[in-house]
Amino acid sequence: MRRSYVRVALAVTTLVALAFVIPLAMLVYTAAQDRAMREAERQALGLSAVVVVAKDRDLVLNSIESTQAGHDGRLAAHLPALGAVGASRVDSATVAQVRQQQIAGTVEVDGGRAYLRPVALPEGLIAVIEVYVPAASLRSGVGLAWLVLLGEAIVLVGVSTFLADRLAARVVRASRDLARTAASLGGGSLHARVRPSGPQEIEEVGGALNVLAERFVELLATERALAANLSHRLRVPLTALRLNTETLPAGPDRDRHVRMVDRLENEINAVIVEAARPLAARPRLRCDLGAVVADRTEFWGALAEDQGRPWQADPPESGIIVPAAFSVIAEALDVLLGNVFHHTPDSAACRVSVRRDPDGASVTVEDAGPGFRDPEAAVSRGASDADSTGLGLDIARRLAADTGGRLTVGRGDLGGARVVLTLGMAAEEAPAPPRPRRWWSRLGGARPGVHARR
Question: According to a count of CB atoms within 10 Å of the terminal CB, is the N or C end of the chain lower?
Fold first, then answer.
């Protein structure tokens, strides 16, 4: 933007300067010519009085040589009786034409211009006075004037460009402050604010952005409090559910229900803790995708065994670190596997596999059910072609998008639905730099003032 301002100012000022400088330069050139021709006319008028009364050629010649123009060989008189007196540069035909027309004028000659003025003599005769004006006199002072005009134009363009650059720098500085604050807010730094500066319009935008940030903080605090309150309200029915579970007879079913209740309680506690924690203080999330898949396939595999459902879960590879929490990925996998158990018959097979890709890691869930009638609509939030809320696949899609991956829905080899959840890989964490050894450690002694333990 700053360069654009400067370029526009440079172009406009240059055009304005040219629009004034070119006509002024032509005017200066014309004025120099007029000044030289007026001087020639004055010299011709001074010699006219002598020509009218002179009868002697020597008198006319002495009068011509007594002037500076005559001394320089630029003044001559064409007399009817005495002929040409002085240094002449025009031919007799031109002189005869001036005598006949009796009108003063100029003619171009070698090296300059000649001014011819007719003078009426007694007895109806016409004399012609010739004044030669060299080209140097016609251009006298023009070069210096042109240099002055060019210098003024350069100064004008330079000053306007400098002022435009200063104005653009002010605007750009304010715009960059707005962009930097908006980026900080988008990155989770909710305390970032704009210091309004620059033109009035940008100051108004900065003030509006600050108001928006304050309003966002208020709404976020309200949403956090609401989430914490709702989660806390679930503790009462959860306690009743735990008491009912503990009354079940001892055995695998009771243990499985207890684990489910424990997990539900942990999830509720996690919601309360996360709702009270500022965004900037939240840790970087990382987990092993293989461990999550192994945990959830073990859980759903037991249910598949109870239903008699064909079940295949390939052992996942360990060491696939993805940038998401264990519970979030588990929730997404529960959504994908829960759809299989909810929307397909008990006899429909299910297969779960994990694969490491060049751009991430993917979890594929396939079934032998009816599949999706409209795969594109299936991932739309709130849209469902079955008896469900239509939020499950959107939760998985958002998880994939947050990690830089994607969610693909289609038809698989088993004849039913095929859902591929691709997650981006977590960045490698740089190892912590080794702590520098103190000088007393290098010497093998205890820290000064501290007794070594024996």
Answer: C
**pTM for this prediction:** 0.44
**How far is C-alpha 356 from the chain's CA centre?**
37
Q: How many CB atoms lie within 10 A of CB 6?
A: 18
CB 452, CB 446: distance < 8 Å? yes
DSSP state of 281: G
- Name the architecture of domain 2-140: 2-Layer Sandwich (3.30)
> Do the domains 285-423 and 2-140 match in fold?
no
Q: Give the pair of three-digit tokens for residue 336.
A: 């994908």
In the block, tokens 């319009």 appear at 201
The token pair that represents 412 in the structure block: 């698989």
The half-sphere exposure of 62 on its side-chain side, counting CA atoms within 13 A, is 6
pLDDT (tens digit, 9 = 90+) per residue, 226-239? 777 777 777 778 78
Per CATH, is 285-423 categorized as 3.30.565.10? Answer: yes
Please tell me the distance from the alpha carbon of residue 154 to that of residue 138, in angstroms, as a whole number: 27
Domain ranges of the chain: 2-140, 145-232, 285-423
Q: Which of 74, 107, 72, 112 is nearest to 91 (CA)?
A: 107
Question: Would you tell me how many other CB atoms lie within 10 Å of the CB of residue 119?
Answer: 22
Q: What is the largest CA-CA distance in the chain?
A: 157
Taking only the tens place, the pLDDT of each residue in 39-82 is 888 888 888 888 887 777 888 888 888 888 888 888 888 888 78
Which residues are registered as beta bridge partners of 421? 363, 407
- CA 155 to mean position of chain CA atoms: 31
Angle CA(320)–CA(325)–CA(330) in degrees, nearest 5? Answer: 85
Token digits for 318?
Answer: 């360990």
CA 437, CA 439: separation in Å to the nearest integer? 6
